[in-house]
Amino acid sequence: MLGLCACAPRQLAAQEGVPDHIVLVTIEGLRFDRVGAYAPWLDRNADPDAPAAATVATPNLDRLAKNALVYGYALATSSWCAPSLASVLTSRYPSDLGFTDLTEPLRAEVHTLPEVLRRAGWKTQALVEHPFLGARMNLDQGFEQYEQVEGESARARSLEVTQRALKVIAQMGSRRTFLWVQLGGLGPPFEVDGVGDPLSREDWLRYRDEWTPEDLLSMQQLYNQEVEQIDREVGQLLDALDDAGVASRTALVLTSSNGCELLEHGMVGDATSLRAPLVRVPLLLSVRGQHAGAIEEPVSLVDVAPSLLRLVGLSAPSDWQGVSILPGDPAPERSIYSELSRARKECVAVHGDWKVLWNQESGEVSLFDVYSDPLEATNLADQKGAIRVELMDNLRQFVARGATHASAE
């Protein structure tokens, strides 16, 4: 077995107190390496001779992280929003759900987080901006109110979601409330305030062989400005919780459905691969006056829902695939997974310090040490053959389970 994880076990002691409210904030396109609280995971092996990168400031995300559990390695279950967010709400992997693309909606018999909370008397409400998250995909299952905001751009829709969320938070009273706030607008075409007509993803790719280092730095800067815009929206949500007097009684989870590639591997945007810029995401869990600290071992977005139920004293459905990752709960020996069946067919297994990436079309296998090489610059598949073989065995079993489930539907 892979006994190769250098991570420390979760040692923070759980404390008493059950939140009255849960606010789940998911941000489409937010990379983990753009959040200030993740600097320790990047700086520990930084190359002092590397060229200067575009800088980004995330004071509000960092304010949240200061009093939160910060999960150093959180893996999204896919590199685009719909299947990844389905996993957040159902604690099941996309292939297990049969939800790897947009051809079929979420099945009605699947147990969702808002359904469990609603049966326990919670008010459940969602505000989403992305067109893929419409009611036709059945991601509204379990929500009393599900609002999909319309608008000409992701940036405009995200701003509208924030404004509506502020009103909902201001009206939070004694009834227990679960609020999902889905923000977006990160990535091409890089809609930045004060900047002229943006370039589309197709434009960036069409001329990628002609870009100078200065052009690429400019793209990084545009993306970082988008991150700073989203950070300001997060700040508004944090302030609203304080102003409403419910911050101390609210569990706030913030994560990203997926990251964003910025030509590190030849592509721009989401759904292009399962490399770190796309599937390693920030994950922060804040309960005022309770748990705080850094968690090193890898976790999955399928763990969000069971952790929230554990936090409020409810049992998770037996068919959920995630586990509670709260301090004091046992950290199981396991692999976690990510999968993609859109632009290309890939899958990933992460176990301890190691990540194996399998391109199922070409057969290529890559292996990365996710803690010493957080952005996956060095493929160790040839040097670490035994680890590669064992992780690939795990990954093939995962793929086989998904295929068996799909054929049974």
Provide an overview of this structure.
- The chain has 409 residues and is α/β, with parallel strands linked by helices.
- It folds into 2 domains: 21-326, Alkaline Phosphatase, subunit A; 337-408, Arylsulfatase, C-terminal domain.
- 30% of the residues lie in helices and 19% in strands.
- It has 11 helices and 17 strands.
- It has helices at 39-43, 59-66, 81-90, 94-97, 113-119, 154-170, 201-206, 213-243, 276-279, 304-311, 385-408, and strands at residues 21-28, 69-71, 74-75, 123-128, 145-148, 177-183, 250-258, 261-262, 268-269, 280-281, 283-287, 293-295, 299-300, 336-341, 345-351, 354-359, 365-369.
- The strands form 4 sheets. Strands 5-4-6-1-7-11-2-12 form an 8-stranded mixed β-sheet, with helices on both faces. Strands 14-15-16-17 form a 4-stranded antiparallel β-sheet, with helices on one face.
- A hairpin with a 5-residue loop joins strand 16 (354-359) and strand 17.
- Helix 2 (59-66) packs across helix 8 and helix 6 (154-170) runs parallel beside helix 8 (213-243).
- 49% of the residues are buried.
The number of helices is 11
* Annotated CATH topology of the largest domain: Alkaline Phosphatase, subunit A
* Fraction of helical residues: 25-40%
Structural class, please? alpha/beta
Strand order of the largest sheet: 5-4-6-1-7-11-2-12
User: What form results from the Cα inertia axes?
Assistant: globular
* Highest-level CATH class of the largest domain: Alpha Beta
* Gyration radius, rounded: 20 Å
CATH homologous superfamily annotation of the largest domain: Alkaline Phosphatase, subunit A
| Mean pLDDT across all amino acids | 89
Series of secondary-structure elements, N-terminal to C-terminal: EHHEEHHHEEHEHHEEEHEEEEHEEEEH
Main pleated-sheet profile: 8 strands, mixed
Q: How many beta strands in the DSSP annotation?
A: 17
Overall CATH architecture of the largest domain: 3-Layer(aba) Sandwich
Q: What is the beta-strand fraction? A: 15-25%
Poorly predicted runs of 5 or more residues: 1-15, 48-52
CA-to-CA gap between the ends? 33 Å
Instruction: Count up the domains.
Output: 2
